[in-house]
Structures are given as C-alpha cells and as structure tokens.
Design goal:
With 609 residues, the chain is α/β, with parallel strands linked by helices. The chain has three domains: 190 residues, Jelly Rolls, CATH 2.60.120.260; 72 residues, Immunoglobulin-like, CATH 2.60.40; 280 residues, Glycosidases (TIM Barrel). It contains eight helices and 34 strands. The strands form nine sheets. It has an eight-stranded parallel β-sheet with strand order 29-28-27-26-25-34-31-30. A six-stranded antiparallel β-sheet has the order 3-2-4-10-7-8, with no helix packed on it. Helix 2 runs parallel beside helix 3, helix 5 packs parallel to helix 6 and helix 7 runs parallel beside helix 8. The longest helix has 21 residues. The chain is globular. The N and C termini lie far apart (76 Å).
Length: 609
C-alpha cells in the first residue's frame, strides 16, 4: 500500500511538473527582471496576510483551468486552457493575455486536497482580490458571491467539503468601462487618451485557505495610537468572547490584557518606541482567543505607535504633524502597475522594490494612486518606513465639471450627475470595505476618496463617512478635484503640471500640492510601445531630466514656506505609454540621477528647519 501511495504522489508530481512546463509568459511587451523567477507551480508563495498570521495555511495559487463564455451562461464549459493564478486574465504572466468584455463571463476551476491534519477543523477559503463581481461553487454547491475588485473576502467551506479531492469553480463578471464600478485607471482601450491602462479582470491577488478551531476564531482587529504612549486595540472574534491581547517588543511581552470581542483595550509599553520613516519601529501583536480559559485560536500581527495630526506653524499655516512634530510629506504618485503582471507584481521582492527605490530617492511618502495593493505591500511600507496616502479607485465616470476642466480658480459642489444610484452604492460599499480592512496599517496617514472630480459625488457625505469610520487619520476630500466651499475634511489639494504651483489656498485647511512634475524620458528598449509615448514635458537625456527635476524641487521651497504642507511628484515608474517615471516600466533603469534627486528632496523636506 505504501508503494502504491508513493507512486500516486510521484504521478501527481509529474503531472504538476508537466503542466508547469507548458506555462509561459505571453505577448511581446517588455517584462521585469522578476518575470523569469515566477514559478508556475507556486507563484507568490509567501503568507499573504502579514498583519494576521496563522500557522495552518495552504496556497491555492498556480495553474487553474479557465474559459470565457457569454455572461448569461450559468455553468462552466470545457476549459479553454490554463491560467496562472493570481495573475489577471489580460496580463502576460497569466499565460493568456486575454480580454473580457461587459458581455462576457470569465470562469475558473481547479481541484485541491485539504491537508489531513485539518480533519475536524473549520476551513476558511480566502480570495484576496477578484475584479469585479464573482460567484463561487465548491463541489457543485454555491458557497457565496462577492462584488468589489479591491477587497479581500472569505468563505467558511467546511460543510461543503467531501472526501478526497475538492472541486472549486469561480465565475467572474467585469464590465470595466460600464460606469457602475470602481476601476481606477483600467480601460478597455488604453490607446484612447494618455493616462489610462490595460484592463484587469478576474483573480489578481492570492487565493489560499487556512484551518481554525471549530469552537471559534479571531476575525480581525483594529489598532490605532491615541497618543504617543500607547496603542488602542479592538479585536473581533466569533465563537467566543474573551481575547488575550499582547503587545510584543521582539519576543518580549511589554503590555497585555484580556478584553471582550468588539471592546477596546489600551496597551502602554514602559518605554514607547515611535514609528516614523526614519525609525520604522513595529511592535508585535499577539491575539489569543479563549473559551472557558482554554486557547482555541491565536494570530500574530503587528502595530506601531504613531500619530498624525494638524498643527499651525508660527505663521498660522496648518501643517501635518507626525508624532506631534511638523513634517513636510513628499513622495511620488505610485500607480502600482507592472508590464508583465499589470495589477500584480511578479514576486514579493518586486512588490517591495518600488518602495525601496522611493526611499533611496529621498522621499518619505507614497501616494497610492486610485489602486489598492495586496496586504504585503502595506507590510513592506510599515517595515521599511514610508508614509502612505491611500486613494479610493474611482468609478468609470471621468466627466469633469466644466469649470474644473477650464482651470477655474474656484471649484465647488463636488457632485457628478452622471453617476447613477447603483454606481454610487458600489463606490460607497467598496470604500467602506477598504477603510475597514486597511485602518490597522500604521503607514497609512491620509485617506483620499476622490481624484480630480472623476466620478466625484456627495463629497460631504463621503468625507463624513470616512471620518466616522477612521477618525485617527486625515482626509483629503478630493485630490485636485471639486471642493466644497468652506471645506470638508482636513486637506485642500491642488494639481498643477508640469512645474509646481498652488492653484488654491484655504487657511482653514492643510494645503498640499497633490500632483506636479511628469518629467518624461523615453529610453529605447524599455518602453511599452515604440511610438505615441508621452510626458508632460519630455527630454532626451537623464542629465536634462534630472536638471529639470532639481529645478522644480527648488521651486517648491517658496511654496512650502508660503504654507504648502506636502507635495506629490508624478511618478514612480513609467506605465504603458506614460513615460513620467523615475524608473522605467520594466524597473531596469533609474532614469533620474538618484543622488541628485535625493539631495534635492532632502532640501525640500527640511527647507523649513
């Protein structure tokens, strides 16, 4: 019998190797250096959720079967081929580089086994992001559905399991340009216009499962710093109420107490270590669920002690203060796109790469532009030390108000009549999910619900919702978009290309320059396409582009002294036909001189010192 089992395992391994050998990246576009490191047998193998780690887990990333049908088909047909999960259908690394329209459905299927040690455990199935709406079946039974392309969701699949192999099926609908869903810069035809990129459909973050106790488990937690001495932690659990919350410095417990699920506890270490970009000190966070005094679940997370606030300087200008001290926040506009994986970085090293380079260029902040990243990206920001402004991905309506489009000096109202009730509901529900799931990340200091009036609506209500769900951070009501007379939220945000210039000032708000720059530099052999590339201004050498960057940075000094509290340079990398990056799209070349840019950035950040 042992020999038969061994032969069966070897046979399955041979099949897996053969399937992996068939997979190849497709298309003729440029790729990153990490594309060659992608394994079809085990892509993105790292634990996908560093903020809440359990030991019993299994990745379901890898080759799945796929098919595309009319969207009204209610059963998956014979597979058209294999697709590498978690890379989106349209990407090179999916092995398909296909296309999904509003009339289509994208189907996935695969089989898997549940580890024997999970017998009598509750099994949770996680999808970290599927764009846009999906239905899920296991062993022929529907287990649930989800709508929203940027948020994680899970199902308890325990009662649907059977002996032996399990069969999982997923149906995805993704209208992209249909005007009803948040989709950021995705468009069906990125050749129209300049700043829109290839659509992303289907699974684009990790799929995995984990085992928890059938008696109960921890669902999530919130963690914020009410001051510079402590952390306020609120655990959420089901099946039991008592949670032991411990704050760890390395392996040493420095504070801890029991609390009920849904209730908050203040943990105060004796000698608090603050988190900042210069010193990204993190505390471990251990949550243990207790029932009748016995441990039934445990997760390992982390948190930090840091505050973000508004303070007036000696001239009365409102500034942003990190840990009570004024800090000029300066960073690039980070689109988060990849030539080979589109929304999905090819490896975890690649995912961290742009953050590392951002710090090397001397920035202390990133504006994550109308995209939401995997949980590991925020962990990298937390551990490396970078502030994050988190945008909400905008809806498909990009109609600007006429006064905005004409460059008026006063914007007002912040309502888009083009957005129907369903589109507004989709936006609000997904924004609430993003706020709920991301407010535990120390790196995030600013929420940005709207960008440049793209699908902007009910600004007062959306800002109020954001502040209600997370009063611990600042809210940038509309980066470069319509603003409400008298102001709502905390920040008034001007955009101006290409040189830095403040179009508006409001003494009652923190004034920031939310976008400027866009210095273009095409480098042959490192562009998405060979022609029709662009930048707000274009140069032919790195020396010229760097000199213009330094010139713009020096212009910022007077703007900062006049009251500007932050600036965002466009942008981290080239993206498709947009060649405004500090780095090429394939991440092969640093286009601007890093030492000169870092020195210029440091001078801006400290020009008020």
């Amino acid at each position: 019998m042992k020999k038969i089992i061994t032969l069966a395992i070897l046979s399955l391994a041979a099949v897996s190797l053969a399937a992996a050998a068939r997979w190849q990246p497709v298309g003729d576009h440029i790729r990153t250096p990490w594309a060659d490191e992608v394994s079809a047998r085990n892509p993105l193998p790292e634990y996908p959720r560093p903020q809440m780690v359990r030991g019993s887990w299994k990745s379901l990333n890898g080759l799945w079967n796929y098919a595309i049908t009319a969207k009204d088909i209610d059963e998956m047909p014979e597979a058209a081929g294999e697709i590498l999960v978690p890379f989106a259908l349209e990407s090179s690394l999916s092995g398909v580089a296909g296309r999904l329209t509003d009339d289509d459905a994208l189907w996935y299927s695969r089989s898997f086994r549940v580890p024997c040690l999970w017998h009598r455990k509750t099994v949770l199935l996680h999808f970290d992001a599927v764009d846009y709406a999906c239905e899920v079946w296991l062993n022929g039974q529907k287990i649930g559905e989800h709508k929203g392309g940027y948020t994680a969701f899970e199902f308890d699949i325990t009662k649907y399991l059977k002996r032996g192999r399990q069969h999982l099926v997923l149906k995805v609908l993704d209208g992209t340009d249909n005007g009803l869903q948040p989709r950021g810069k995705q468009v069906m035809d990125p050749t129209v216009g300049k700043i829109w990129y290839t659509a992303v459909s289907g699974i684009w973050q990790s799929v995995w499962m984990e085992a928890v106790s059938p008696k109960g488990h921890i669902l999530d937690y919130d963690a914020v710093s009410p001051d510079l001495k402590s952390v306020c932690v609120t655990p959420y659990a089901e099946g039991a109420e008592d949670v032991l919350v411990e704050l760890l410095d390395g392996k040493r417990t420095v504070a801890g107490a029991e609390v009920k699920s849904g209730e908050s506890i203040i943990l105060s270490p004796a000698d608090p270590k603050l988190w900042s970009p210069d010193e990204p000190n993190l505390y471990g966070l251990r949550l243990t669920l207790l029932k009748d005094g016995k441990k039934i679940d445990r997760v390992q997370g982390y948190t930090a002690i840091r505050t973000i606030s508004k303070v007036a300087d000696e001239d009365g200008h409102l500034r942003m203060a990190l840990n009570g001290k004024v800090l000029f926040q300066f960073g690039p506009l980070d689109q988060g796109w990849w030539p080979d994986g589109l929304y999905t970085a090819p490896t975890d090293e690649a995912l961290a790469f742009d953050i590392v380079k951002t710090k090397e260029y001397g920035f202390n902040m990133i504006r994550k532009h109308i995209k939401v990243e995997p949980a590991r990206w925020y962990w990298h920001c937390d551990r490396l030390g970078i502030l994050v402004w988190q945008d909400m991905p905008c809806t498909a309506d990009y109609e600007k108000r006429e006064d905005w489009a004409q460059g008026a000096d006063v914007y007002d109202a912040g309502n888009s009549d083009q957005l129907c009730a369903e589109a507004r509901e989709n936006f609000v529900e997904e924004w609430k999910e993003i706020l709920r799931s991301h407010r535990k990340y120390p790196c995030i200091v600013v929420w940005v619900p709207f960008n440049e009036a793209w699908g902007q609506f009910d600004t007062k209500e959306v800002v109020a919702l954001t502040q209600q769900m997370d009063p611990s951070r600042l809210v940038n009501m509309a980066s470069g978009g319509n603003w409400i007379s008298g102001g709502v939220g905390d920040i008034l945000d001007s955009h101006h290309y290409s040189r830095p210039k403040m179009r508006l000032w409001d003494p009652a708000l923190v004034n920031v320059l939310g976008e400027y720059g866009g210095i273009g530099l095409p480098l042959e052999g490192h562009t998405w396409v060979s022609d029709k590339n662009w930048g707000y201004v274009k140069f032919s050498t790195s020396e010229e582009a760097t000199a213009k960057y330094v010139e713009y940075a020096e212009m910022l000094h007077d703007i900062v002294r006049a009251g500007c509290a932050a600036a965002v340079y466009t942008q981290t990398t080239d993206v498709e036909r947009e060649l405004n990056g500090l780095l090429t799209y394939d991440r092969e070349i640093e286009k601007l001189d890093k030492a000169l840019v870092a020195a210029a950035n440091s001078a801006v950040i400290h020009c008020m010192d």
